[in-house]
Design brief:
single chain; 433 residues; mainly beta; Immunoglobulin-like; seven-stranded mixed beta sheet; six-stranded mixed beta sheet; 5 helices; globular; laccase
Length: 433
């Protein structure tokens, strides 16, 4: 099976939703090797009564399930996540291109999705509802990924509690919460403990945005349904035939910064006095980075839709990053950085201001492909501690619109003295242009 490169990264918001039960079955089972063939193709998909051509797996959206029992051997290793996404009736590439041309904010999505389904709260979407079936008295591991382009999301399941155990591939001190907050591109692993007995009810799982800015956003709610399976012994019981009540969770207000601050403050590493998280006490380089939204001047003979006729821009240290036409790593490796990038990214904001007070009056930002160049094994004080990986590394905002507006920069880590500290050459089949 080869590797397919998808035609557009914005299509990657399609959703795969699964869960892993933590209960172990000790009965012996015959282990087998399972073979799966996954074909990535473009196919028409309909949501919200709109049909569009998009990437599917084996002709399905979301893709097919991959099933394995304990002891089985898979030729493909998968971690199967829960992913939130967005559905655009329009072409997402056209949406962002229009925003970049006009200098205004991008048009918002038409729906959020869970597992590729908008759910029953949207028009023309009742049949496109994801249903998660669980058994009473079990503990499930849910892996959540926020693949929405521009929105942090609140997420909750009615009358159930999550135990957060991991965030962004790092274990955290477990804590309980009825509502999660997850940012674009963020991953979170949580434990969901089901009711000890069939509750004779169904439960909505909903997500909607957390927003504090002044820009436009998709002010809607996506919903799925948590259902309890009925055992074979009670298949004819009353709760399998009657219409069960449907409970709805209470999500925080859209601008509930108090909840957001309280939730993120609980994300703590497993470090303790016995196993401390040792960080370097001496640093070689110190950086102060400020990030934010600003503006560019509108080009001549063009009407722009940003503030006061300008174009929206985003920056780090007042520099809005301009994407080069030549790959940065390629230019660095071959020593051909001239005309591609300059090694003069500012170590602190070009225009100092009160960083904890009112923002500066001048919102105009500069534009350029500026990088920070570091000797091998430099210890840097900027959240990250230590830079011992060679090459060129992007640092950017996970909100797609901010990245498109230039809220990104890059680090160049130079070769070390030892042979093992040299950047490997590019592959032999690297395109020449």
């Amino acid at each position: 099976m080869g590797i397919s490169f998808l035609p557009s990264p914005t299509f990657l918001g399609f959703l795969l939703f699964s869960f892993v039960t933590l209960s172990l079955h000790l009965e012996p089972a015959l282990a087998i090797t399972r073979h799966y063939k996954l074909d990535v193709m473009l196919q028409n998909v309909t949501r919200l009564c709109h049909t569009k051509n998009m990437v599917t797996v084996n002709g399905k959206f979301p893709g097919p399930r991959i099933v394995a029992r304990e002891g089985d051997r898979l030729l493909i290793q998968v971690e199967v996540p829960i992913i939130f996404g967005e559905w655009f009736n329009a072409d997402p590439e056209a949406v962002i291109n229009q925003a970049l041309q006009t200098g205004g904010g991008p048009n918002v999505s038409d729906a959020y999705t869970i597992n590729g389904f908008p759910g029953p709260l949207y028009n023309c979407s009742a049949k496109d509802t994801f249903k998660l079936k669980v058994k009473p008295g079990k503990t499930y591991l849910l892996r959540l990924i926020n693949a929405a382009l521009n929105d942090e999301l609140f997420f909750s399941i009615a009358n159930h509690t999550f135990t957060v155990v991991e965030a962004d591939a790092v274990y955290v001190k477990p804590f309980d919460t009825k509502t999660l907050l997850i940012a674009p591109g963020q991953t979170t692993n949580v434990l969901l403990k089901t009711k000890p007995h069939h509750p004779n009810a169904k439960f909505l799982m909903t997500a909607r945005p957390y927003v504090t800015g002044q820009g436009t956003f998709d002010n809607s709610t996506v919903a799925g349904i948590l259902e309890y399976e009925v055992s074979h012994n009670t298949i004819q019981s009353s709760h399998s035939t009657k219409k069960l009540p449907l409970f709805k969770p209470n999500l925080p207000p859209l601008n509930d910064s108090s909840f957001a601050t309280n939730f993120t403050s609980k994300l703590r590493s497993l470090a303790n006095a016995q196993f401390p998280a040792n960080v370097p006490q001496k640093v070689d380089r110190q950086f102060i980075f400020t990030v934010g939204l600003g503006t560019h001047s509108c080009p001549q003979n063009q009407t722009c839709q940003g503030p006061n006729g300008t174009m929206f821009a985003a920056s780090v240290n007042n520099v809005s990053f301009a994407m080069p036409t030549t790959a940065l790593l390629q230019a660095h490796h071959f020593g051909q950085s001239k005309g591609v990038y300059t090694p003069d990214f500012p170590i602190s904001p070009l225009i100092p201001f009160n960083y904890t007070g009112n923002p500066p009056n001048n919102t105009m930002v500069s534009n350029g492909t500026k990088l920070v160049v570091l000797p091998f094994n430099t210890i840097v004080e900027l959240i990250m501690q230590d830079t011992s990986i060679l090459g060129v590394w992007f640092m950017h905002c996970h909100l797609e619109v901010h990245t498109s507006w230039g809220l990104k920069m890059a680090w160049v880590v130079l070769d070390g003295k030892l042979p093992s500290q040299k950047l490997l050459p590019p592959p032999a089949d690297l395109p020449k242009c």
